[in-house]
Inverse folding.
């Protein structure tokens, strides 16, 4: 049974008991395991005695659509196709080859459905997609939250700091750790395969093997950004689960020490898989629990917002869970509670005031977009971080913060600096466009932070970071050798 706090009816239309199938519209939680939305769709299919149909579609007109993002999603679609076939469930992978050609597909399938279940997601184009679907469908549409350990609906507001959200989460989360999604919800679903009507298949055919393979030729035929090429990191639930197990086995114990040093590359590398819904936080928690011989009943006492001691686990594991749970869910909390996550105006009043007071301060350098995107500034650490972003679709976490602070320092207006960071990050980062990405970008300008002294030019009381201090503090030699030179690691 899906917890009520995770489930909401999006429209007032009834369930059509005599429909041909229950439709799961997979759009944000792009996986067939540890997925509350799929749990709900299976639950409805069983109760109605109707087969399940999974629709996973990929449009080409989303902002920042590129070979990189498409290839990552297509790898997941291949995995999901194989998994659904293994369980005897009909899976319809639809990939637009021209802008707008997928319009009408959901409505057409909905005319044959008992009900439509989809993923609840608070940001990017997902809310608008859901609103449009609600207006089009004449059958029950339900949205299910599979994002975090704590259902988004339980937070009464957005929280100004990680400390405040952590204290709230520590008070609320215990009961929800016992209500995890099914590891294999389609196992044992003994139903005939759903049949997609031939008229729908003729107009919106399933993607062929070449397109699902994301070959260069197939990608080249799509109206997306071909300058942003695919990364070495492969997408999909299979690769994501392998990455979880590799990290938990080899990287978890040293996480709190190694994650900050670029030479050690000690991050989990799970962010892109979480962003595209190829893995869930629940699957990660299960792997961590197995590794540590721990169960959720072993939680410590609420710590009033303290970062350590709540989970009852070793310090490196607690550090990882704080990033995975608190900081990640903090961003989704903001997106769920407000509709301005991408807006400079969403910054705290004190941050906007101090940046406005220093907006006319002289900048030591002023770089245009091309210089920044091409990583040809005077700062070798910044250039290295930007080249890693372009080359690998990710950036070392500590350097991402420095990267943002430098763009604030090198841009005439702070509002323009925020816009530049959003454009650079969302075009090149595999995990761009995510609430957690916006948390990181706007932290540069004071979101989730407090005033810091002394007052500095340009920054005012915004927290300051410098490349010189970073060079002294972190192990960077191997990282700079790889990325600092033009063309590094390409």
């Amino acid at each position: 049974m899906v917890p009520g706090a995770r489930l909401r009816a999006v429209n007032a239309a009834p369930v059509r008991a005599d429909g041909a199938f229950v439709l799961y519209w997979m759009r944000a939680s792009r996986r067939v395991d540890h997925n509350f939305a799929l749990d709900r769709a299976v639950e409805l299919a069983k109760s109605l005695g109707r087969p399940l149909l999974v629709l996973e579609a990929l449009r080409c007109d989303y902002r920042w659509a590129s070979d990189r993002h498409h290839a990552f999603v297509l790898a997941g679609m291949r995995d999901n196709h194989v998994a659904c076939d293994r369980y005897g469930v009909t899976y319809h992978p639809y990939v637009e080859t021209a802008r707008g050609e997928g319009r009408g597909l959901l409505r057409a399938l909905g005319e044959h459905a008992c009900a439509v279940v989809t993923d609840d997601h608070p940001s990017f184009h997902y809310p608008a997609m859901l609103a449009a679907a609600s207006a089009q469908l004449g059958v029950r549409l339900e949205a299910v939250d599979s994002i975090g350990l704590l259902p988004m609906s339980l937070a009464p507001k957005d929280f100004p700091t990680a400390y405040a959200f952590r204290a709230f989460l520590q008070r609320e989360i215990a009961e929800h750790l016992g209500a995890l999604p099914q590891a294999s919800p389609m196992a044992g679903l003994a139903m005939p395969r759903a049949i997609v009507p031939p008229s729908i298949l003729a107009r919106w055919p399933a993607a062929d093997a070449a397109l699902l393979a994301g070959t260069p030729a197939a990608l080249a035929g799509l109206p997306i950004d071909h300058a942003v090429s695919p990364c070495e990191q492969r997408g999909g639930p299979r690769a994501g689960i392998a990455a979880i197990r590799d990290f938990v086995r080899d990287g978890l114990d040293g996480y709190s020490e190694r994650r900050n040093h670029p030479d050690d590359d000690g991050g989990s590398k799970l962010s892109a898989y979480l962003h595209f819904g190829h893995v869930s936080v629940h699957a990660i928690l299960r792997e961590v629990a197995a590794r540590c011989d721990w169960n959720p009943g072993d939680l410590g006492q609420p710590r009033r917002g303290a970062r350590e001691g709540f989970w009852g686990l070793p310090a490196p594991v607690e550090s990882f869970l704080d990033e995975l749970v608190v900081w990640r869910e903090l961003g989704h909390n903001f997106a769920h509670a407000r509709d301005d996550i991408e807006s400079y105006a969403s910054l705290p009043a004190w941050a906007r005031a101090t940046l406005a007071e220093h907006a006319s301060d002289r900048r030591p350098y002023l770089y245009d977009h091309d210089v920044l995107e091409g990583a040809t500034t005077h700062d070798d650490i910044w250039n290295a971080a930007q080249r890693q972003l372009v080359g690998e679709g990710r950036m070392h976490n500590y350097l991402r913060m420095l990267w943002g602070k430098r763009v604030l320092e090198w841009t005439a207006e702070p509002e323009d600096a925020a816009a530049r960071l959003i454009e650079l990050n969302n075009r090149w980062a595999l995990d761009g466009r995510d609430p957690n990405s916006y948390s990181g970008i706007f932290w540069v300008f004071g979101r989730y932070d407090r005033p810091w002294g002394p007052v500095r030019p340009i920054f005012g009381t915004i927290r300051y970071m410098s490349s010189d201090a970073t060079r002294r503090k972190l192990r960077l030699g191997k990282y700079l050798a790889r990325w600092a030179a033009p063309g590094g690691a390409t």
Q: What stands out?
A: The chain has a mean pLDDT of 95. Residues 315-337 form the longest helix (23 residues). The longest strand covers residues 52-58. The beta strands are 7-9, 21-26, 52-58, 90-95, 113-119, 141-144.
